Amino acid sequence: MLAFLHISDTHISADPNYSLPEMPEELPHPRRGAEALLEAIQRLPFTYEFILHTGDVCADPTAEDCRSARALLAEFPAPVYMLPGNHDSASHMLDILHNGQSLHVLRDARLRFGEYHLITLDTCDRGDLHAPVVSDEKIDWLDRQLTQVGADSAIVALHHPLIETGVPWIDDQMRVQNGARIHDVLRRHSECIAAVIHGHIHQQMDTHSDGLLYISCQSTWSNLAAYPQLSGPEPDTLTPAGFNLVMLQKRRAFVRRFCLPAIIR
Ligand SMILES: [Fe+2]
User: Fold this and answer.
1) What SS3 class is residue 82?
2) What is the 191 CA–ligand 1 centroid distance (Å)?
3) CA of 79 to the centre of ligand 1 (A)
4) Backbone CA torsion sign across 63, 64, 69, 74
5) Cα–Cα distance list, 147 to 135, 142, 151, 176, 245 (Å)
6) How many angstroms does the Cα of residue 187 sit away from the middle of ligand 1?
7) Predicted structure pTM score
8) DSSP strand pairing (205-209 vs 109-113)
């Protein structure tokens, strides 16, 4: 069995006055959400192998935000494996956050944990950062990595969602625009994939398609709505911040959602 935590979209900022004009005024500083996450994780009464952060570690792609994130992530009680999101700088993350021991920055990588393979795909390097296009070379690379999994099990992790949901805002503005091509590759390897894990949309979402389970988790800073006619980002103040516990047994994925206490500004 492999157990790990899934966290995402912490948007840690070194700027004490950080806010975005499109976000609700009452939203607390992202640092407070990340600290609430740390506090909750430190109190968990069970052990797990690692913490997977699916990107937007920082609010802005700056060295200052990375240093602020490093101070906080260093306190986490298990190794943290993180992917760059559209708000991050992969090069600052590698220079400042990655230490190869407790903090690991992954772009296109495959790591083994016994019979489980964690395959990460950096989706943030081409086209619109909110709705990027992934290169053919990367898609071929992913295909080859999944072939290497053989009789073992894989989790595929990336920042952006891949497949259409029916929510126009997610499908047109937040999704990998050639995600259907990547889904086709994943579908061909679906027998070895326990789950596809992503962030970016600031909400928990499960999509089951062609034998693949796609899951996301909330942001610890701000959460967003999704419904059939939604054409742009809309705050969802009713969704609490949180994280996921993922437990894999061979190719079966069990996901437990944890919510964090509301933070009043
Ligand atoms: Fe984000």
Assistant:
1) strand
2) 30
3) 21
4) positive
5) 19, 9, 10, 22, 27
6) 26
7) 0.97
8) unpaired
81: exposed, middle or buried (Cβ count in 10 Å: 0-12, 13-18, 19+): buried
- Which two structure tokens, joined as six digits, stand for 71? 């101070």
- Beta-sheet strands, E only, within 181-264: 193-198, 205-209, 212-216, 242-249, 252-259
Ligand 1 centroid to Cα of residue 166, in Å, is 20
- State both tokens at 260: 């964090």
Tell me how crowded residue 162 is: count the other CB atoms within 10 A of its CB.
Answer: 25
Q: How far apart are CA 215 and CA 200, in angstroms?
A: 11
**Among 3.40.50.150, 1.10.10.10, 3.60.21.10, 1.10.287.110, what is the CATH number of 2-259?**
3.60.21.10
Distance CA 122, CA 198 (A): 11
Give residue 201 CA to ligand 1 midpoint distance, Å. Answer: 7
**Ligand 1 centroid vs 159 CA: distance in angstroms?**
9
Q: Which residues of 88-120 are buried (b: 16+ CB within 10 A; e: fewer)?
A: bbbebbeebbeeeeebbbbbbbbeeeeebbbbb
Average pLDDT of adjacent 10-residue blocks, the chain of 265 residues: 98 93 85 96 97 98 98 98 97 97 98 98 88 96 98 98 97 97 98 98 96 97 96 90 97 96 76
Residue 9 Cα to ligand 1 middle (Å): 4
